[in-house]
Design goal:
Length: 131
């Protein structure tokens, strides 16, 4: 369904450091990084798509986080959700909802919400029952 997701950033080095700590927790390897452009991307496994990319806006205007926009990243277990949330906060993210069940979505929805170092809202979610 998805080819790629691009998340806007303003400070490439800061955003790159944030995502380089978060994505390995989710098992997503870095596919490329070009600071001259600037952009970087991570590949889903088994891949090759969808890709998750960070980049400065193409129009040269400042990045502004959207209201009501969120990117949700899939985690295989609830423990991965917990680790990803902790890593995100330790890397400059801001909590938007701690890890926990959200039964209003479905009985096994276990998610955590946070903003990245650039203010973009993210969720890490596991849809599986506890292991």
């Amino acid at each position: 369904m998805l080819s790629h997701i691009v998340v806007g950033i303003s400070q490439f080095d800061r955003a790159l450091a944030f995502y380089r700590t978060l994505m390995p927790v989710l098992g997503l390897p870095e596919r490329f990084c070009d600071p001259t452009r600037p952009w970087a991307g991570w590949q889903s496994q088994p891949g090759p798509r969808p890709l998750f990319l960070i980049a400065k806006p193409q129009d040269g205007q400042p990045h502004v986080p959207g209201n009501g926009q969120m990117t949700a990243l899939l985690a295989g277990t609830r423990q991965v959700v917990d680790r990803a949330h902790a890593v995100a906060l330790a890397s400059g993210g801001r909590c938007e909802g701690p890890p926990g069940l959200r039964p209003e979505y479905h009985p096994h929805y276990y998610g955590a919400y946070f903003r990245d170092s650039e203010g973009n809202k993210l969720c890490v979610v596991c849809h599986e029952p506890p292991a």
